[in-house]
Specification:
The chain is mainly α. It contains 13 helices and no strands. Its main location: membrane.
Length: about 280
């Protein structure tokens, strides 16, 4: 999850640097192209090309269609809102993810898990101080992206039962590349060397972020993984303050503390439960 945190923050910085210069769909196209090349080379070099064959193509398409929409909305939000606000609004994902995982995967929706999610969302609200100014069109774009991410996360959890993380990443790039190409045809901009560097960073961090998330979901319930993902918010808040002069209000740290309490509560086990597991 630490690898995912660093990757998502770098991806956000890259998207902000390219805002107003490179079309969002073109960013998605470059990301998918780099991903497909890198994953294909890894599969070939490690003699794992058999992983390309999957009996669950339909679920891969569903997962990556929703992920494409979520990523597109997220990138648009990065250009319109402060970084911390984008991440905060995105963190409504755990609520939708836990509910979808409960409905589709049969994961237990315990009182402790619900309490942790609500504490996390409370922390988000403390940070963004929601009012009429926050919930504008830009905010709804990010909230829509969050709903798409929730479906994507739940699909990833299901796929991780039978599929390798490399398989999941391969089909993510394969499915999303033509979608990005279709939306870029009439909006192409030849990138400069500097812009190409940022495009490479976005593509590389997209791979590392989703590889880390896929590996994490193999070892924990999807809702727990996304709850831990809340820690991206204070990190990106400081990045926005240092690089772009975005306000770093005390509420950011108060909200982060509330989220940390929620994380610890979700992971805490009573001593009796630990003894039972050991026995």
């Amino acid at each position: 999850m630490v690898g995912a945190l660093l990757s998502f923050c770098l991806m956000a910085v890259g998207a902000r640097e390219l805002s107003g210069e490179i079309n969002t769909a073109q960013v998605m196209l470059f990301r998918s192209t780099l991903g497909l090349v890198v994953i294909s080379l890894i599969l070939w070099a490690t003699k794992q090309t058999a992983l390309i064959h999957s009996p669950r193509i339909g679920l891969h398409c569903v997962r990556n269609g929703f992920h494409f929409m979520g990523q597109y909305g997220w990138l648009v939000g990065i250009t319109l809102l402060p970084l911390a606000e984008v991440f905060a609004l995105e963190f409504t994902v755990p609520l939708w993810t836990a509910l979808i995982a409960w409905l589709c995967l049969g994961e237990a929706l315990t009182l402790r898990k619900l309490s942790a999610i609500l504490l996390g969302l409370l922390g988000v609200m403390v940070i963004v101080k929601p009012g009429m100014a926050v919930f504008n069109l830009s905010s709804f774009i990010v909230l829509g992206a969050a709903c798409c991410y929730a479906i994507s996360h739940t699909s990833t959890k299901s796929l991780a039962v039978t599929e390798s993380p490399l398989t999941i990443l391969f089909y993510m790039s394969l499915v999303q590349l033509p979608l990005g190409l279709l939306l870029t045809l009439n909006h192409w901009t030849t990138p400069t060397l500097q812009q190409g560097g940022w495009l490479f960073i976005i593509g590389a961090t997209a791979l590392t972020a989703h590889f880390c998330m896929a590996k994490a979901m193999q070892h924990a319930e999807v809702s727990i993984v996304v709850i831990l993902d809340f820690m991206r918010l204070p990190a990106i808040g400081m990045v926005g303050a240092v690089l772009y002069g975005e306000s770093l209000a005390p509420s950011l740290f108060i909200g982060a503390l509330i989220m940390l309490i929620g994380n610890l509560f979700a992971l805490w086990q009573p001593k009796t439960a630990v003894k039972t597991l050991k026995s």
